[in-house]
Design goal:
Layout lengths: L7 H30 L1 H7 L6 H35 L1
Helix pairs in contact: 1-2, 1-3
């Protein structure tokens, strides 16, 4: 089916990338959450990019992306372990 899923190193590498993506998205979620409540602090720190309204929109959107990236990260890690136990 997927040829690239047969190589264990490649599965781990992809899983690691999703793990780092999850971490970046969690940090962005924390920053935007702080930007919603303390927008007078976050707005100057981000050069006006994350105002209160933008932080609210990003905070709502990023939550779903965090869940998807984390699910892929955990799923690939479990798949890698399961495939390793079969070999």
């Amino acid at each position: 089916m997927f040829v690239w899923l047969k190589d264990k190193r490649r599965i781990r590498r992809i899983g690691r990338w999703f793990g780092w993506l999850s971490l970046a998205l969690v940090l962005l979620t924390i920053l935007t959450g702080y930007g919603i409540t303390k927008f007078r602090v976050v707005d100057p720190l981000t050069a006006g990019i994350l105002g209160k309204a933008v932080s609210q929109r990003w905070h709502e959107t990023v939550g779903l992306l965090v869940l998807a990236a984390l699910a892929l990260h955990v799923g690939l890690a479990l798949w890698s372990r399961w495939k390793g136990a079969q070999d």
